[in-house]
Write a structure and sequence with these properties.
Strand 1 (38-40) and strand 2 (43-45) form a beta hairpin. The protein has 401 residues and is mainly alpha-helical. The protein is 71% helix and 1% strand. The longest helix has 53 residues, at 256-308. It has one domain (16-400). One of its GO terms (biological process) is signal transduction. One of its GO terms (cellular component) is plasma membrane. It holds the Pfam family 7tm_6.
């Protein structure tokens, strides 16, 4: 559902609703919208999605089929087929875990959106000072490029097996339908994937399954980017406020009360943002952990398949998902690094203040605040690793070298 909300009749004023209303063409035209944002009494509410539950069930069945078929390939000592299935299974695990995170944390997502909306600037002047429009325009451009790229690549990915089947399959021989003619080579009972007569129905099933699974990644990306970008925007704004703070007012008898009231507001704002950052990490650490594991598995096996490929078409087939997987890790690491940077900047700004020329009381405030911000906030996956560019470098070096 596209949310439309006018704020005080001002056309230039942005709203979080504008970002929630951005949909991928599959979500807009095919109805594959897993998170239907609504306003109930002015607050965000995300109702349960039967569509998401059905998609998750199909994804779990598909992952189970991949495991069964991989076991059969290993038992038959068909190493190449086992590698192909493991590469597909890795991406299937990523999509399933991200969709599962959306389904299990629906109430937490609603709460987080409301917590963000609670401090969202409503006036045009404040939004200009916070550069809200700049942030929102960047997010909209990013979603447009991502959605356009995915539409083109996924459409090619879904149509290629059918085209190869029509061009290269020998209909007179009535042989079994090879995995290369399927969108997803996972196992299904009774050998239905091997028969020419059932191929059209299986192909439609695979297209629906792949579209639903890709939409899990798209929806997860939309939620993650909107929330972490808003959080980074608030941290940057707090840093701007601290830079503009006049510490000399702490020694002016006429301004001291207003100064400390303002300082207390900044401290409360920082504590509120830190709590939001912790909630954000709790929301996404499960999906980030399993996503990274699945992507690493898929990257490794795709690289092996590329080196063993016998023609350029096979190389392109295996390389295409490889670039997508590298981008998925890079994007999460980029946002994690940005959050780490803006939180570290708070400590730098506090230290750069002329606290040594101010009152002893303000010096104590500054010292305690500097100590509390000595370590920047970092996204983690259950404290196993930090989600930043160093993590991206480590994953790439271990997978590619």
């Amino acid at each position: 559902m596209a949310l439309q909300q006018e704020r005080n009749g001002a056309a230039k004023v942005c709203a979080i609703d504008d970002l929630c209303a951005i949909l991928h063409p599959a979500q807009r035209y095919l109805g594959l919208n897993y998170l239907n944002f609504r306003r109930v009494n002015g607050r965000f509410a995300i109702p349960r999605s039967k569509l998401l539950n059905i998609a998750l069930f199909l994804a779990v069945v598909d992952c189970t089929g991949n495991v069964i078929k991989c076991g059969k390939a290993i038992n038959a000592r068909d190493v190449t087929k086992a590698q192909e299935i493991f590469a597909v299974f890795g991406m299937g695990l990523v999509m399933t875990m991200r969709g599962l995170q959306l389904a299990l944390n629906r109430d937490k997502l609603s709460k987080f959106y409301n917590d963000i909306d609670r401090i969202f600037p409503r006036s045009e002047n404040l939004q200009q000072h916070m550069e809200v429009e700049k942030v929102h325009n960047y997010i909209k451009r990013r979603f447009f490029l991502l959605h356009t790229t995915l539409t083109v690549t996924v459409s090619a990915f879904l149509t290629m097996p059918a085209m190869k089947f029509l061009l290269f399959y020998d209909f007179e021989s009535n042989d079994i339908v090879a995995d290369e003619f399927h969108v997803n080579p996972s196992w299904l009972p009774f050998g239905v994937k091997d028969k020419v007569t059932t191929y059209p129905y299986i192909y439609i099933y695979e297209v629906i399954l792949a579209s639903a699974a890709v939409n899990m990644i798209v929806t997860w990306d939309e939620v993650f980017v909107v929330l972490i970008s808003q959080l980074c925007m608030y941290y940057e704004y707090l840093g701007k406020l601290l830079e503009e703070m006049k510490v000399q007012d702490a020694m002016d008898a006429k301004k001291i009360n207003a100064f400390y009231k303002q300082l207390h507001d900044y401290i409360y704002m920082h504590q509120y943002l830190n709590n939001l950052a912790v909630d954000l990490n709790d929301l996404f650490n499960f999906s980030i952990l399993f996503s990274d594991a699945g992507i690493a598995i898929s990257i490794c096996f795709n690289l092996v398949l590329i080196t063993d490929a016998t023609d350029y078409l096979q190389m392109i087939t295996y390389a295409s998902p490889l670039f997508v997987e590298v981008w998925l890790i890079y994007d999460a690491a980029k946002w994690g690094t940005l959050l780490e940077t803006v939180t570290a900047r708070i400590n730098e700004i506090l230290y750069e203040q002329k606290w040594y020329d101010s009152s002893a009381r303000f010096g104590k405030y500054t010292m305690m605040w500097i100590q509390s911000t000595n370590e920047p906030f970092r996204l983690t996956a259950f404290n196993m690793f930090y989600v930043n560019m160093k993590h991206f470098q480590d994953v790439c070096s271990k997978c590619f070298l």
